[in-house]
Amino acid sequence: MKKYTSKELRETWLNFYKSKGHVDIGAVSLIGDGTTGVMFNVAGMQPLMPYLLGEKHKDGVRLCNVQGCVRTIDIDSVGDESHCTFFEMMGNWSLGDYFKKEKTAWTFELLTEVFGLDKSKICSTVFAGNESAPRDEETAELLKGLGIKEENIFYLGKEDNWWELAGTTGTPCGPDNEWFYPLTDEKCSDNCDINCQCNRYVEIGNDVYMQYEKLEDGYRPLKNKNVDTGFGFERMLMFLNGLRDVYRTDLFVDVVSYIESQTGIKYGEDAESTKSIRIICDHMRTALMLIGDKNGIVPSNVGAGYILRRLLRRAIRHARKINFNTSDLREVANIYIDKVYDKAYPLLVDKKQYILSEIQKEVDKFNKTIELGTKEFEKLLSGIEKKIAFLTSSNPDYVAKPEDREISGKSAFRLYDTFGFPIEMTIEMAEERGIKVDEDGFREAFAHHQELARTTSAGAFKSGLGGNGEMETKYHTATHLLNAALKRVIGESSCQKGSNITAERLRFDFACDHKMTAEELKETEALVNSWIAADYKVECQEMPKTKAVEIGAEHQFLDRYPDIVTVYSIGEVSKEICTGPHVKSIGELGKFVIKKEEASSSGVRRIKAILE
After folding, report:
1. What is the number of other CB atoms lying within 10 angstroms of the CB of residue 32?
2. Do 586 and 481 touch, CB atoms closer than 8 A?
């Protein structure tokens, strides 16, 4: 397997597809123009949507590019070895021109003859078929004909190998073909394959075959079929160089080296300082891309500017944490512009002084913000001391309780949200004065804020639903069972932190301080299915909110509910305050299958599951 620099990989992708008759259409702005309903460009195919839906593209029917994207929904995951808020997608498209035969052959050629992958190790997934669309035997046979072993071809369901625009009709959709490769030849067990939780296999990319039109009651074949290919640039660069840490690729090594030289910290030796270095690397890269974009933005308190401000301030906070001079963040941006993206994004070079100036402005502002936050912090402590003095003066026998010397979660969150004061600084400064911080209360307030922001941003229905049909109702009911099962398997500390439900699957976020083991996942799944098999009835009662709490009903963000609430009970299994729709009897749900467990944010895990 050949190793590549980032510039070589970019050129290799574009030159390969240009040799197949494609036109390099370049990258569009990272900033949303209001037509797609999203703040930033979040996927390589997003700008091509009008043409995949039938519009004629000025450059023809064979297109390719490397497109920058920004996703900040997983911002709290940045700091590990793979998450990035800015990333690039290598893409190519056929707009009613070639189809599966050509595309499978070209992807295989690129992976084996250009990148040097061993064809005997390549794995691929194809659509397993359902009542609406057939099993994708055509793609499977083409893969076998290219030399991929039959045992390395896996048939997966709609959740994994189907693409469509949710909530639409009359739009193109179809199966996709995903490509995988093992990071090591060592198996964790005899059954170790792409479905294993051990992370031995990495997904390289996928080819989507838009061959159907979505109807209200199913699908019908399209006359003009499209191909949409997406391969993650950073992921591919990391993989081809035999790395498991994206921050060790040449996209980041010069910045990492500079931070090491200025702080004396060695990247990789200490978990906390390494996390801070990664956050600085990622957030500064995204920030300069947004400022230097052709539709560039600047930090502000609203919209995309607020996201940019949050990224910069998070980078500044972590710079202070590792004693990295915050003014040197300008040099971090300078390294990216001069050494990494000078050829791919020449506009960054043209706008360099402007970008560096805007970064320095925000550094200066945030340093002042920290001063303001410190003053507000001192007011809080003064209030606590006055409260204790009053209690002891009015009652000489009064002994101050631990909760008397505590900053409430709401107050800590106000420092964070209103003054931009990091919770870590609040905790550290409070400890120096013998004061505790209600960290659980802060997390609850923060989760409340996130849930409101997510719901507002996504335009979601109540209770995390993306719709209100039969399947959404079933999946919503299943979240109650999953919540109850997690409390039994992980412990009472587990609680719901958010959910997102569509007609295809459920996504459930919950408090957990570790990656769930295979045994824990199996036990959770088995518990839910045992309750479904028992076919408990779902009962609902209206009652005062205070009574609901007294009888032990589960709840999120209690202050959001009215004085009279609805409590849904499922046998002795679950009792929750809820506003969503539910089935009458859980035997209707079918088989519950956990498809994936992953990190959502710090201290929060995420499960994706389906009903079969």
Report:
1. 18
2. yes
